[in-house]
Design a protein that fits this description.
By secondary structure, this protein is α+β, with helices and mostly antiparallel strands. It has 2 domains: 274 residues, no CATH class; 218 residues, Serum Albumin, Chain A, Domain 1. Helices cover 32% and strands 17% of the residues. The protein is built from 19 helices and 19 strands. The strands form 3 sheets. Strands 1, 2, 3, 4, 7, 8, 9, 10, 11, 12, 13, 17, 18 and 19 form a 14-stranded antiparallel beta sheet that branches. Helix 2 runs parallel beside helix 5, helix 13 crosses helix 16 and helix 13 runs parallel beside helix 17. It is globular, with a radius of gyration of 22 Å. The two termini are 44 Å apart. The structure holds glutamic acid (GLU). Glutamic acid binds next to loops. This enzyme consists of two polypeptide chains, which are synthesized in precursor form from a single polypeptide.
Length: 601
């Protein structure tokens, strides 16, 4: 089931409300943390009752918790938290991007999803990333920082749809804390400073971005206060006038203008290719409501995001493959070997079959079927790693399936952010949102305080008609985002998600395996060292994973690439007694924040 919502169904707001949006009159306050104010508490894990929020950021989690404390539900808190992440994590998320929102309604027992993915403009053709001068694809790095890579943003439309369908609060109320936060500012931490420094050269190429994120020509200093008055003004306008302010009228014109004609510094060497977005593309943007993916794993119901994300089908297929083994009874290296093999096979299938279902026939039911996964498990050798890449399985796979495969280049990036929320009624949200690469396209809408995404680089550039993920006008690029809700007997048990490009899929799978099969608590499952096998010759792994397991996994034939940090999980568990554990990262990305309304004594 897919139904479309017109983003213009904004719940009535009158211009007179402008007065109450003056910063001093904000009812739901942001935690004070700018210079001279105490920073909000930032435990990575909290346990208790009454509602829980987990995200990568202390300010954002605190804002979401405040909404829950005041009686808002999970959808309300998720929108408020996401808006705050757009302020404090502007390189990962914000109104210039898109994402996927998964909602569990405890009263009906239903899981619903909102696909707020960015879309290709209506005038963008399949050869858009091919250089007409050479007939070859543009270099990936050059395509990233360009108008060409900017998809029509879906984030604001997602917030509006989530509140309309599931929430109890207005968008105006849920934006207020972020308006205040952008005005007062937040403390620059090591992660924000390092992300700015890593992007300094390309940010400097775009004057509007340099002005905002490189004050005095350099990244803001750790410990300084970063304010974004332009973003505060933009959010205030949207709060007062509704999302039409963004999707129609002056702001839409400004977005289309900068995409079509990126404004670069005369000294910049970036090609900054122009894009195709028009004001009509923004006016026509629609989110999609669709059924979640669902599989059963060890008696639990695992719900995820259906295509256009490959998250739900690929996490689902990986777990279905692992269902063939009694992992709890295995030694950890043996379980990890099976995990690496399961995800490699699932990635072969996602690369072959998953794209935007509005344009390609995606065999979602087959990819999620236990029979299909069993045919994959059948060729996995419990004692030896398969030669990568493995081939996709034919869709009528039965028995054992083996074949040769060609190599797929993985160009997805590692930005993005995820938040998890459970409220006092047991409703839950898993929401992953992104502007794609850290810093997105590098292009800020001048004077508006937010970056535009580079999501269209998630398409494959070569227009091979057999590839489900080539550019087409109006199409959504395939995603790996995997917001996941696990139910136990109809009640929410786990809410999980992560950033990390294509490693999102393996991270969510690994955290669930750690928790469900390997005897870890949720905080342990989140903190445990990670590895990611996405059907490539080398396994990506963290240094701690290599230290712990490389010597035991190498004899299987697994080969490891250079160590790198993987993911930044924000998760929640609710046990059978209703005790909630909000678990964010203790260390990765500078540590996240998990909060509960009523801490357990
Ligand atoms: N663009 C990626 C996706 O949709 C996410 C980017 C990331 O996590 O860094 O899958």
């Amino acid at each position: 089931m897919v139904h479309v919502t017109h983003r213009s169904a904004f719940r009535g707001l009158s211009l007179a409300l402008g007065a109450v949006l003056a910063v001093g009159a904000v009812a739901v306050g942001a935690p004070a943390s700018a210079a001279g104010r105490p920073a909000p508490p930032a435990p990575s894990t909290s346990t208790g009752f009454g509602g829980a929020v987990s995200s990568v950021d202390a300010e954002a989690s605190a804002i979401g918790l405040e909404v829950l404390r005041k009686g808002g539900n999970a959808a309300d808190a998720a929108v408020a938290t996401a808006a705050a992440l757009g302020v404090t994590e502007p390189y990962s998320a914000g109104i210039g991007g898109g994402g996927y929102f998964v909602y569990f309604d405890a009263a009906t027992g239903e899981v619903t999803t909102i696909d707020g993915r960015e879309t290709a403009p209506a005038e963008m053709q399949s050869d858009a990333f091919i250089d007409p001068a050479t007939g070859l694809p543009y270099p990936f790095a050059a395509a990233v920082s360009s108008g060409l890579s900017v998809g029509v943003p879906g984030t604001l439309a997602t917030w509006e749809a989530a509140l309309d369908e599931f929430g109890t609060e207005s968008l105006k109320e849920m934006l207020k804390p972020s308006i205040l936060l952008a005005t007062r500012g937040f403390r620059v931490d090591e992660t924000f400073a390092a992300q700015t420094a890593a992007n300094q050269a390309r940010f400097a190429a775009f004057p509007a971005t340099a002005e905002l994120f490189l004050p005095n020509g350099a990244p803001p200093e750790v410990g300084s206060t970063f304010t974004n008055p332009d973003l505060a003004t933009t959010l205030r306008e949207i709060a007062v006038h509704g999302t039409d302010r963004f999707y129609e009228g002056a702001l839409a014109d400004e977005i289309a203008a900068i995409v079509q004609d990126p404004e670069t510094d005369p000294a910049a060497t970036l090609p900054a290719f122009p894009g195709f977005m028009t004001p009509d593309d923004l006016a026509d943007y629609e989110v999609l409501f669709q059924d979640p993916t669902r599989i059963e794993y060890r008696g639990l119901d695992v719900y995820g995001m259906a295509p256009s994300s490959s998250g739900g089908t690929t996490v689902g297929e990986s777990l279905n493959i692992l269902e063939n083994y009694d992992l709890a009874a295995e030694e950890v290296p043996q379980a990890l070997h099976l995990y690496l093999e399961a995800t490699a096979h699932a990635f072969a299938d996602r690369n072959a079959y998953v794209g935007d279902p509005a344009f390609v026939d995606v065999p979602t039911a087959t990819l999620l079927s236990q029979d299909f996964a069993d045919a994959r498990a059948c060729v996995i050798d419990p004692d030896a790693a398969s030669v990568k890449p493995v081939a996709p399985a034919p869709l009528d796979a039965a028995g054992c399936v083996t074949a040769a495969a060609e190599v797929d280049v993985d160009t997805e990036n590692i930005s993005t952010t995820h938040l998890s929320v459970v409220d006092q009624w047991g409703n839950a949200v898993a929401y992953t949102l992104t502007i794609e690469q850290t810093g997105g396209s590098g292009m800020t809408v001048p004077g508006r305080g937010f970056l535009l995404n580079n999501e269209l680089t998630d398409f494959n550039f070569v227009p091979n008609p057999a590839d489900p993920n080539i550019v087409e006008p109006g199409k959504r690029p395939r995603s790996s985002m995997s917001p996941t809700i696990v139910l136990d007997g109809g009640d929410v048990r786990f809410v999980v998600g992560s950033p990390g490009g294509s490693t999102i899929i393996t991270t969510v799978t690994q955290v669930l395996m750690n928790r469900i099969d390997l005897g870890m608590t949720l905080p342990e499952a989140v903190a445990a060292p990670r590895a990611s096998q996405r059907n490539t010759a080398n396994v990506s792994a963290e240094q701690a994973f290599l230290d712990a397991y490389a010597s035991e996994l190498t004899p299987y034939g697994h080969r490891f690439g250079n160590p790198a940090e993987i993911g930044a999980v924000a998760a929640i568990e609710v046990d059978a007694d209703g005790l909630m554990t909000a678990a964010a990262e203790p260390v990765r990305r500078g540590g996240g924040t998990g909060l509960v309304v009523q801490p357990a004594p």
